[in-house]
Amino acid sequence: MALFWIKSFHSFVFIVESLAILFILYSGLFNVGGPWLAVALILVLAEIAVFVANRQRCPLTKLALKLGDKTRLATITLRIFCFLIGSSPLSRPSAAHSHSLAFSLWGCVS
Question: Same structural domain for residues 62 and 80?
Fold first, then answer.
């Protein structure tokens, strides 16, 4: 059960970080400022600090592996990401979808 909560927390962090990055992009494109931009910047900078402090590895991965994770944390995140963009995950990127950066990097098929 602990592994489920670690993976759920990892997916939550991924979604929040993704939204923060998109909000920073939106703020730059449409000249939007304010407290939400500051929150988004702090979240992204904190994530960068965590990765740098852990030699560019997610600290939750080590914990999940210790608890017996066989699929790695990124698998559940990949499934959520592919679901959100209307795709299904593959084990490796499809040559037919190599034109799309998201499909190539995430191994999703539309």
Answer: no
Of the candidates 82, 12, 29, the residue with the CA atom closest to the CA atom of residue 37: 29
Residue type, 42: I
Residue-wise over 51-72: b if at least 16 C-beta within 10 A, else e? eeeeeeebebbeebeeeebeee
> Distance (Å, rounded) from C-alpha 84 to C-alpha 53?
30
Is the pLDDT confidence value at 71 over 80?
no
- Rg (Cα) of the chain, in Å, rounded? 16
Quick check: 50 pLDDT over 50? yes
Q: What is residue 71's three-state secondary structure?
A: coil
DSSP helix/strand/coil, 92? coil
Higher pLDDT, 16 or 109: 16
Same domain, 91 and 37: no
Q: Please give the residue range of the domain that contains residue 85.
A: 72-110
Query: What are the respective helix, strand and coil percentages of the chain, to the nearest 5?
Result: 70, 5, 25
Residue listed under structure tokens 């990055």: 21
What do you get for the CA distance between the two ends of the chain, in Å? Answer: 32
